[in-house]
């Protein structure tokens, strides 16, 4: 019995299956906030929907006491004033557990069909979600729309597709018939049932609540688990809207909406999360956040499958270039984009202290550093345009980190406050770039400085730059790694470095692709092979252990005739 | 570049891929020790090869100090007297690490091709390995040959097949081309490299050293990892022969034989194993053994992917039967086979205290218990035939457990020493069966009594039997579960119980299939859904996290022409 929602979306799923196999470009969701695609009034409707959430209780029909929580503040300078239902953990776990039986029994095509329908509805809400992502994370609108809307939906669909790609390999039943020489064969009928783990917990982050939260959430749903979504206290709204839409779809499809629930918190939720994460009902945890919290989950939540994305040190090795301007402007864009508040943003830029070869001759280290700094300065020269790239600083922790980083070395370009033309109280800072030395400053550049902070590091040679990049990735984690070189042997050595460090390599990016961007269905986000993440988005390993298979077997009559005396084959 | 050994075995691999998809009967390895299949002198040659190992050093060209270890004793009553190279852990890890680079670079078809060639050679050594399994585990020869030879090879091939089924989904490269409206598309060439985790550690058990050891070993090899095989000190020889054969194949194929190494120990190796298991070089651990040791690994070896098979309580629910004799004789066989020293052997048999329905009328609890005991007694009535079923008791721990169990309740049939016609000093015991009560004896029957020990437990009802079976499986683990019922609704309830307990169900087994047997490619062994095992043999989850993928991307020229002004689609 194929679920009708599966049939409805099967053509999309088939295309997605082809995309993850060939890994070329594909997406069913338009990344342009175009009125032609989303409707003439989609932008204003979405903004109005966002504004309608402000300064009032968020309606969510979950079983709760009546108390509310919520302290979100837009990095663009105002309180959201939204109050969410405060959930008691025991009540929440009981509701999630109670929803399991019917959901589990519905089977794979229902799980996948419902997941795809939710995504289709989320896509229609991309503007509302986009504005919500903007005013919780500090992303500028275009990025909030794209990364928080269609790109997040792509990563979700990718996870659903991987889940289905594994689920479809489990036959519902089998006839097993073993020859027994001259005796009749042994024959058995076997039945195979996909059994979800139980309840999954998704722990969201404050910078990419949907993009980082959706893969685990949809991998759980598509494999028949129920899900508790615990957003970061600073970025609840995008996930609250998501959960509400998902619950609507579940209810319409005849399921208990508590298959997915929201656990909103008002801040300082560490002890509550630790309690919840160790509860026996929680069988899967998807986490994006600090290394400290991620490691704690990996080392303590033994009852659960734990998938983490944590801190890392992203690196760029500059060996030689054709056109330093193209290189510097590509790198500057990566540094300025959302003020470096991306897990994929580069931090360490290694340049040999003796300089590099370019098509216009040798450039000294200082000239390269200056070109990089100049490119950043050019990008942020016009604040009104710059803020559409940098967005705002998500939290005060990033602000203090910028202040602390300014003391680490010679400033190549200093951070400055940028005036936002629309939001006068927005917390906007241009990127800070410092000059460091490979020998003197290792203790500082071997850790993550999350935010608009980068280091141009003088090394003894490209060979040393590569060795360092590989060992830092392997020991401290990394999600991205770039090489700039006109020498094929160096590029090849960089790929060997990437393999050693377990990190994806981008080679000579100069045009419209940036190292901090990954494309769903094509680029794996993270590898699971270094400390920055123990999983990749998405692959078979990300989904295959979210369900198990229980089987039965019973004798049946053989289908083959027993050999007859005198008969020859 | 497809490796020649992959091409050589590709037809077998294709059949194995079809088998795991349809889960019907299939095997490329003959389970009958037939001269027609294995050669006229295979049996005597194999026995001679086994005997040639006795009382001398085992030749293995691993880097070692010259010291040797080894204290194996046949449960059939003699010292093996074999001395194995004693390995220093640092030397071993260094050798395994040094072997990684070339092996990793060889790529998936080499890993899979070499694995398949090793299996083909192991199959030819099935008699030598069979005798070695017999005289380390205590299995009777036929079982030692089948479970230790072709069936273990089947489970290994199954793991290799699952590995290949995942590996083949990763394209070597991709062309990614994203339309940009009226501008030329963005185009990138991407390269994907499968990167093994590093070094795997396989921790063997003393009852099924090859059957339980091969899946992890071959899953590691087939995904490009190097492997250290640490057999149980009581059952080294079968894995030592295996490692030697694997090293020969590796060497012939031009690889460093240290891709696979043996770590033999002389007993009391707990501290050494704990040291090794936490070493950062160890990225994967496959363990079969006690719950205590398995849990320790799961909770402490955070640097590794840990796959465990531990203790469990296997259960049979008797509700109603057509033919009690057929039921009793099937169950008795399961209890006697290898003296219950199987992780799949039943232990708890629940019968309602008010008795059961049969086609010949109602039977009281005591009549059912007596029928079960009588069937066991009949099976072991002729010691010379019985020993071919029971084999010998592997170790003194099982002997003391039998003695302890005799005190737990009313004895239905007592254990007795059986004389072995060939090996007068063999440690052979017939099964012990006790009568217990569901209310009084729960503290005893909720844990595993590994060995020829079973309990017929009086319950209040079949409903209670099922409830108990499900909750014991979920809380204490179980690998097998049987229902005997002529009522479809009860069978259906038993399947719901199996899903709750995360355990495979066998329904009304009466002819030549026994609950303790699982068929590779068709039956999953373990589910990973209860405490008896955190993984199943084999499925995608068992292999997909043993490797990771590292990619690169670089700009290339688009393949599609940019839209031309005036041109319409």
TrEMBL record, chains A, B:
Any GO MF annotation of the entry: L-glutamate gamma-semialdehyde dehydrogenase activity
InterPro entries xref list: Ald_DH/histidinol_DH, Ald_DH_C, Ald_DH_N, Aldehyde_DH_dom, PaaN_2, Proline_metab_enzyme
Residue runs in coiled coils: none
Pfam families with a match to the protein in the record: Aldedh
Keyword NAD: yes
Gene Ontology biological process: L-proline catabolic process to L-glutamate
Residues annotated as domain Aldehyde dehydrogenase: 86-503
Keywords on record: NAD, Oxidoreductase
GO cellular component: cytoplasmic side of plasma membrane
Name under which the protein is recorded: Phenylacetic acid degradation oxidoreductase
Source organism phylogeny: Bacteria, Pseudomonadati, Pseudomonadota, Betaproteobacteria, Burkholderiales
